[in-house]
Amino acid sequence: MSKILGSKKSISFTFNGTKVEKEVEPRILLSDFIRDSLGKTGTHVGCEHGICGACTIHLNGRAVRSCLTLAVQVDNCEIHTIEFISGKYNGLNIIQKNFKKYFALQCGFCTPGIIMSLCDYLYRNNNPSEQEIKDVISGHLCRCTGYSSIIKAAVESAKEINNAE
Amino acid sequence: MKPPYLSYVSPKTLDEAAFLLDQDCENSKILAGGQSLVTMLNMRLIHPKILVDIKNIKALNSINATDEGLLIGASVTQQELLEYKELSIVSPLLYKALPWVGHYQTRTKGTICGSIAHADPSSEIPLCFALLNGKIKLKSLKSTREVRADEFQTGMLSTACKSNEIIESVFFPHLDSKVGIAFNEFSFRKGDFSLLSVAVIYRENSITVGITGMTDKPDITVFPILSDDKIEDALNDLAWNLKGIGDHIASARYKRDLLRKIGKLTIGEAKKCQKF
Ligand SMILES: Cc1cc2nc3c(=O)[nH]c(=O)nc-3n(C[C@H](O)[C@H](O)[C@H](O)COP(=O)(O)OP(=O)(O)OC[C@H]3O[C@@H](n4cnc5c(N)ncnc54)[C@H](O)[C@@H]3O)c2cc1C
Ligand code: FES
Ligand code: FES
Asked: What is the reported pLDDT for A164?
């Protein structure tokens, strides 16, 4: 057990496909670690108590709140952020294209989090209903769009993902 | 909005976790999904010196359906249980209640046992636990004991779990497959903590109604089988007897009204699906 309160721990994990080894204080949130230590600022921080969803990332393939995760907890895990999605699909993926098509973003603050949630949920579930999609989006706050364009983009993406499979 | 200074340990066995917790239990906290704990740390509502993370303890990550019921290890997440094959058959109550617990993005990390440990007065999982009168297994360095649901939650955010104890697992007993089960709740946004939740077990000779949102912990009441108008009267009496208090979101009167309406709706749904 570390005797000195807050003394750094070394962690090693896969970040967007690359192995990362760093020393980190136990109290550092994963959201801050991603932004400040790894320099990837696509993951946004709104409320830091799990409500807004702006900080949503993938931890071992599942959408989770990075503001409610300590960086030390992801030792040996796999993390993906919005930067990985664009890299993987060499441009915009189906969901991002539909966000553009349906004007599902204005200021864009909430967008990376919502895309991360949908990238997990829509690729994991065949043929989700509109209500199920709305339930997933209910885990995010958007102060600009009024949600209906986001729901349209998500429903359309679900159809396209299903057809592609 | 940042956690205070703290140390972090992630033992690989339950014995090691119990040992580490015992070293300085008053200043230590078990970290499960972190969906309530890290929030409290961020808000500096608590100042533990040491966090004992249970995520690396493989033995705690199991779901076992036995003849008697469902045994769920401490690190099983709410989403893992929701996706457990045949949950709708093994535990229709949890199957109906879990989608109301937080959001998809919090259920992927929040655990079943963590929710029971946290004992928020409006939480759905402690309500199911109380309604089924399940059992919880507690482990400390020197002993293991089991506590029944009716003795576990002692009030708002307080339980019989001592500071040197770890919840190892929770057990939800099976119900007769003929009983009718229904669950409903009201919140302003889907996934937010509810203002009032109602869970009902409709048996051949009785109706068991569980409610959260009125008092500081789940309230369980057993009614005989009643006609529809008698049910309204009984729920009205219950709404007054529970002496719910209003808060900044809803007045006591509003909550009583919710209880009457959601109570009736939920009993009606449970009645429809019973097979006696
Ligand atoms: C945006 C948001 C919405 C939410 N909405 C809801 C909701 O609608 N309904 C609801 O019920 N909950 C809701 N929650 C809370 C969520 O369900 C939490 O997951 C749950 O309350 C705690 O589980 P956890 O595994 O995250 O525990 P943690 O946050 O890790 O721990 C919570 C507490 O329990 C203790 N603890 C945890 N596990 C153990 C153990 N094995 N032994 C001993 N002590 C233990 C911890 O020390 C801590 O004090 C919400 C959370 C968020 C962020
Ligand atoms: S910053 Fe994490 S949910 Fe708002
Ligand atoms: S686009 Fe501005 S918050 Fe959603």
From this structure: 86
Which residue bears the tokens 């921080």? A45
Please give the domain boundaries of chain A with CATH numbers for all domains: 3-84 (3.10.20.30), 92-164 (1.10.150.120)
Residue count (chain B): 276
Q: Is A61 on the interface with B (CB under 8 A)?
A: no
Task: Summarize the confidence of residues B231-244 as an average pLDDT.
Answer: 96
Centre of ligand 2 to C-alpha B231, Å, is: 43
Rounded to an integer, what distance in angstroms lies between the CA atom of residue A31 and that of residue A44?
A: 8
Give chain B's domains with CATH numbers. 7-53 (3.30.43.10), 58-172 (3.30.465.10), 194-273 (3.30.390.50)
A100-155 confidence digits (pLDDT tens): 999 999 999 999 999 999 999 999 998 999 999 999 999 999 999 999 999 999 99
Could you tell me which residues are beta bridge partners of residue B135? B148, B171
| Three-state DSSP class for residue B183 | strand
Q: Of A22, A61, A56, which is closest to residue A39 (Cα–Cα)?
A: A22
Give pLDDT, residue B188. 87
Q: Would the CB atoms of B8 and A2 count as touching at under 8 Å?
A: yes
Residue B215, pLDDT > 60, answer yes
pLDDT at A59 over 60: yes
| Ligand 1 probe mutation, B35, B47, B153, B170, most atoms within 8 A of CB | B35
pLDDT above 90 (res B64): yes
DSSP B26: G
Question: Which of A1, A31, A114, A131 has the most B C-beta neighbours within 10 Å, making it the best mutation to test the interface with B?
Answer: A1
Q: How far apart are the first and last CA of chain B?
A: 54
Q: What number does the ligand 3 atom closest to the CA of A107 have?
A: 2
Return the residue whose CA atom lies nearest to atom 4 of ligand 3.
A142
Tokens of B127: 């309500």
What is this structure's pTM? Answer: 0.97
B interface with A, Cβ–Cβ below 8 Å: 1-10, 20, 23, 31, 34-35, 38-39, 41-43, 49-51, 53, 55, 79, 99, 103-106, 108-109, 189-191
Q: Distance from first CA to last CA of chain A, Å, rounded?
A: 48
Note whether B108 contacts A64, CB cutoff 8 Å: yes
Q: Does the distance separating the beta carbons of B41 and A67 come in below 8 Å?
A: no
- ipTM of the predicted structure? 0.95
Residues B8, A72: C-beta atoms closer than 8 Å: yes
For range B122-142, the mean pLDDT:
97
